[in-house]
Amino acid sequence: MLLTVEVLDLGINNLASLRRGLSNAGARNLQVIATAEESKGATLLVLPGVGAFGAAVDELTSRGLDDTIRHHVARGGYLVGVCLGMQLLASGSEESPGVRGLGLVPGEVRRLEPGAQDRVPNMGWSESTATRPDDAFPVLHRDVDYYFVHSYAVAPECDDDILATSTFGETSFVSAIQRNNVLGVQFHPEKSSRPGAQFLVEVLEWANG
Hints:
Layout (H helix, E strand, L loop, with lengths): L4 E4 L7 H10 L4 E4 L10 E4 L5 H10 L2 H10 L3 E5 L1 H4 L4 E2 L13 E5 L10 E6 L1 E2 L14 E6 L1 E5 L5 E7 L2 E9 L2 E4 L7 H15 L2
Parallel strand pairs: 1-2, 1-3, 3-4, 4-13, 5-6
Antiparallel strand pairs: 6-10, 7-9, 8-11, 11-12, 12-13
Helix pairs in contact: 1-5
């Protein structure tokens, strides 16, 4: 099967490093799209993002990409959300009360709770610990670090949707989620050196069946 990839451009982040990371991982048929009309029906949609939850939802809606994503997932297409893109998969966020997310992985996005020595946003390297004994992403089972920049994290309703966790100070947060053909990671794989590069390889393998 020919693997095709579409990266969704919400106009709120620089996509150059993510595009380069996906290309290095083996994505040969990769397009960046900014509106629903530009979508050609790819195998894998990549939803990146930085910034505020509410502003990102507004961009998704105004560009028609919210429906593009829902239709893609409903017909069995693969989707991965990165950083804010992972948060957009949830039902809503404390950051933007009353604004509804995509609801593809039911749950709420909650602000990180810093300890006395912690600062928000959480910026830097942290290990992700896989919570499933067997999954499609072996690199998550290794003792390696990934790069994070975030103030909020997803709290899924169902524990079965949790793929990996990480720590912020003395507390734990969900750093990766998966529900069937929907995947999300809070870390930036394109900024996470070799482990991040390997994770992108495994994402493409996952989407290629």
